[in-house]
Write a structure and sequence with these properties.
CATH architecture: 3-Layer(aba) Sandwich
CATH superfamily: P-loop containing nucleotide triphosphate hydrolases
CATH topology: Rossmann fold
Strand content: 25-35%
Distance between the termini: 35 Å
Structural class: alpha/beta
CATH class: Alpha Beta
Number of domains: 1
Shape: globular
Helix content: 25-40%
Number of strands: 10
Order of helices and strands: EEEHEEHEHHHEHEHEEH
Strand order of the largest sheet: 6-7-8-3-9-10
Length: about 250
């Protein structure tokens, strides 16, 4: 069953006297519970696509359907509510509030949604345990490593139990070992919590965790490769690397 779909998606920006096509006509459908990685060089439109799919920006043309809701038909308030209830975001630079503890950062989406964190304490405790930060719950971001901050960001994205997690270069600022741990957690949230995961990445090792990898270049989808039938992560990585090598420059 499709949970997120884009049809004829275009995004244009004005750059001086010129119009830049960040996305030049994208059609993509994401199934419920699917783990999809989107790859491409800088300027290919990856982050633009993620922001549009998550309702953070509006397309110049085309339609996005989020769990049955056509986003173009929603006013700003309804679009914000749909995004808040259905989508969790994980960003490359963590975006944690420096004055809040790890636990307080995790509960922030509940407060924004008008919920009492105390009513969801069991869920918060379970997430802290899942990301291995139970003993660090009272620490503020500057007392945490980059990997720990990213784990806080992941728990924050999961706390409202959204149907979809959108992650923009979640391993981009992390060393390879820590990046692997974050991807393991994303895969675990998909398998144990049933989330749909969409990851923007330039790293083929991160993409190898996905069921499907979509390759963008110059605002178009150039090709994709399905990996869910391949159990070995090394074989998945080899397949991703082969496609990357075959893509035209």
């Amino acid at each position: 069953m499709t949970i997120l779909q884009a049809a004829g998606l275009r995004k244009q920006y004005r750059l001086g006297d010129h119009t830049v096509d960040a996305l030049a006509g994208i059609d993509i459908a994401i199934r419920r519970g699917e783990f999809v990685a989107i790859m491409g060089p800088s300027g290919s439109g990856k982050s633009t696509l993620l922001h549009l799919l998550g309702g953070l920006d509006r397309p110049s043309d085309g339609e996005i359907t989020l769990d049955g809701l056509k986003l173009s038909l929603l006013d700003d308030n309804r679009a914000t509510l749909a995004r808040r209830r259905n989508v969790g975001f994980v960003f490359q630079f963590f975006n944690l509030l420096p004055t809040l503890t790890a636990e307080e950062n995790i509960t922030l989406p509940l407060i924004i949604d008008g919920q009492s964190p105390k009513a969801y304490q069991d869920r918060v405790n379970a997430l802290l345990d899942m990301v291995g930060l139970t003993e660090r719950r009272r620490h503020k971001p500057d007392q945490l490593s980059g990997g720990e901050q990213q784990r806080v960001a992941l728990a924050r994205a999961l706390v409202t139990e959204p149907a979809i997690i959108l992650a923009d270069e979640p391993t981009g600022n992390l060393d390879s070992k820590t990046g692997t741990a974050i991807m393991d957690l994303l895969r675990r949230s998909r398998e144990e919590l049933g989330q749909t995961i969409i990851v923007i990445t330039h790293d083929p090792r991160a993409a190898a965790y996905a069921d499907r990898v979509v390759f963008l270049r110059d605002g178009f989808i150039r090709c994709e490769v399905t990996l869910d039938h391949v159990p070995d992560r090394g074989d998945r990585l080899h397949m991703v690397m082969e496609v990357m090598e075959d893509l035209p420059a």
